[in-house]
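Reopening this ticket.

The earlier resolution said the output was attached, but the attachment link was broken on my side. Pasting everything inline this time so it's all in one place.
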Amino acid sequence: MKAYVYGANGAEITDVAKPTPKGTQVLVKVHACGLNRADVGMTKGHAHGSAGGVGTVLGMEWAGEVAELGPDAKGVKVGDKIMGSGGAAFAEYTLADHGRLFRAPSNMNFEEAATLPVALATMHNAVVTNGALQVGQTVLIQGASSGVGLMAMQIAKLKGAQLVIGSSTDAMRRGRLKDFGADLAIDSGDPGWVEQVLKATGGEGVDLIVDQVSGKVANQNLAATKVKGRIVNVGRLGGTHADFNFDLHAARRITYVGVTFRTRTIEEIREIFDEVRKDIWGAVESRKLQLPIDRVYKFDDIGEAFRHMEANKHLGKIVVTL
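Inline output:
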């Protein structure tokens, strides 16, 4: 079967063996894949958790049909239209644990379905489970113009946030954030953004920051979070290391939580998917939670899709179809 593989000469389409499902695995005939930031690093040979390096079939998000079930797989049957996440997505067939997938709503095509699994699981866990957002609270999403950022704002609104602030350093994308739930859009590259947040919150700061930037904004985040507020760190687009004001962190008594799928067990991931299904799935089915598709590429043009992502001019998801 065809797959997009990182090899000695970089990432390229090649032929690999079709996988066979074991245990609780489901074999998926892939129809569409969503690109994610982590995929870019893996096309250059970087590891993402335990995955990466020569011989790795790339990709982590897909939509398709159940082609075959492992002996212990439950909850789906051959022919079901599904979407999910996991490794080796950029291929004609991929494997997924039966607890790491969603049934694709009947009112969605495969391209639309492929935009959602990573964003839904990541941001429900960040905003609701770890962020503990309550009705009437205020939230700032750093890196809000990414696909997961757009979803985070929508989930925050759905869960009753009184004020949603989104950040983007790109003027065009910043201007679109209000279409996805932002009451205020800020430029985190502007030294005065903390004052904007404080003004919007009556001088207190926000209850919750979901931070995909980290690095250069770490201390500004502390200053923009209210006393006894919360910061959930889900990314590192601004760098993995930076100065950190421990005194300000202690003085404001901020709960600072780091989250990632890279170190989670499959049992933990299944629980996250279960929480999405129980809590917000009705909003997915009604299309209240959805992501824009920036551009769709054919699988043979997947290299061009990655060049488009690296140009960093898109808003929403880049999708590849098979």
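Reporter confirms the inline version is readable. Residues 168 and 174 are 5 Å apart (CA to CA). The longest helix spans residues 266-285.
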